[in-house]
Amino acid sequence: MHLHISSTLLLPLGSLASIASGKLLKPQTNTFSSNFTLTDEQIATLNLSSSAANNINVAAQFERSNWATGSVFGDPFYTHLPPNATSAAAGSVLKAQEFINTSTYTLAPTLALSRIVYQSKTLNGTLVPVSAYILWPYMPRGGGLVAPLVSWGHGTTGIYAECAPSHIRSLSFHFSGPYSLALAGYAVVGTDYAGLGAPFYPDGKNITHEYGHRQRRATTCYTPPKLRTQLFHTGGAAAWAAAQQQVDAKVPGFMGSIAAAPVTNSFEFFTTQSKIGLVQAAQAIRLVFPEIPISSILTDVGEKFVDLMGIIQSCNSVFATAAMELAGTDFLHPKVNLTRDEFVNSHYSKLWADLTVAGGKDFQGPMLVLQGTADHILPETLTAKYVNKTCEKYPQNELQYVKVNSAGHVSVVYATQQIWLEWLDQRFSKRGRFDRKGTCSQHEVGSTAPRPLEEYQGEPNYFLEYSLDSYQVA
């Protein structure tokens, strides 16, 4: 039995009027709106080869061409805070842009966008302004007048202000999360996290992103009260941390968490998979342990590397390109050490791990954990280890672990879309909210795939690019 669906697509000749008018078309590169280049001094600082400098330049031009609203440092939305930003309670909306011109973004059609800055807290309890976006659906799920709300905690985009998804054309994760949720009828609140987006405290001091500390990366636990009705969290370790926070925070309207490919123990990850992660976490570690000099975490080259990355506001594309140029592709055994083994083996690393671990702690369920077996960034065995620890200590809590055969770090979200959409429907229904059984469960998926698993597309091999000419979207 099958269902036949057909659609007639008419060639949008009207949109090609610019061609008919005699406009000369030009090829579009993916670095179309930036001419960034490293200075000679910056190149000399790390003794970069000409090819390495070229590659970093191209990656930086690519990142900057994907800014929807220009630099956050030149956008008053991020830099100009109202007077109450010094004292407003965590959860307060400090400012809002209700209607955003989406023409500079690469949103999925029929979605609308708003931006807000709200008050949150850092790890040490300091009030901090945090920017976020709200993605609005065309039709609320379930046919109601109000769209159910989900809180999206994004994966790693970088550690600097320019890495905020709210000013990136595709919101950084497009169809792997926010677009799919909004197209399914959910209103999506996507936090940038403290230090990404809004760059300054009210007194003008820089905000350092607390990379690696998921307890505060889950800043959406302080989602403004007007947005709290019916809330769930997603976004890997941030979602798991949100569930752990909820034991004490008791945010009204919280309905559960989905953790996709979560970093559970960051130091176990740094020491067994990638030392580069410690480079990104170094400044955040010093926020917690200010008595530690940065030189005890990073080598001289590592310090110079972090300084340069901060100056040019590198995000994932630049950071990964520069790291590979310096350290090679084996981040566990780099050609040039950027971190110090002495710190990894110190008692501070254990303190940090205990402070930031997701898993093995009490949490408020229900929680859905998704992990692919072909994840080359986070091994399934590490996620399973902390799922098992959690279930052994808190068997009465509701945790569902789904092991996704042959899925990778990003593709796991695509492979399980039916699962997490159904899971959400259950949470927002009376049956899902009031008739839950608190247990841990685990199961695998992939055995019912109609084709051999090796025949399926793996990780995404594309990106969304803003179109400058109508022929590109004809």
TrEMBL record:
Supply the alphabetized keyword list. Signal
Q: Name one GO molecular function term.
A: triacylglycerol lipase activity
Kindly give the Pfam families that the UniProt entry links to this protein: LIP
Report the superkingdom from the record. Answer: Eukaryota
Its BP terms in the Gene Ontology are: lipid catabolic process
Q: Which SUPFAM superfamilies match?
A: alpha/beta-Hydrolases (SSF53474)
Q: Which InterPro entries match?
A: AB_hydrolase_fold (IPR029058), Lipase_secreted (IPR005152)
Q: Which residues form the signal peptide?
A: 1-22
Q: Which Gene3D superfamilies match?
A: alpha/beta hydrolase (3.40.50.1820)
What is the protein's name according to its record? Secretory lipase
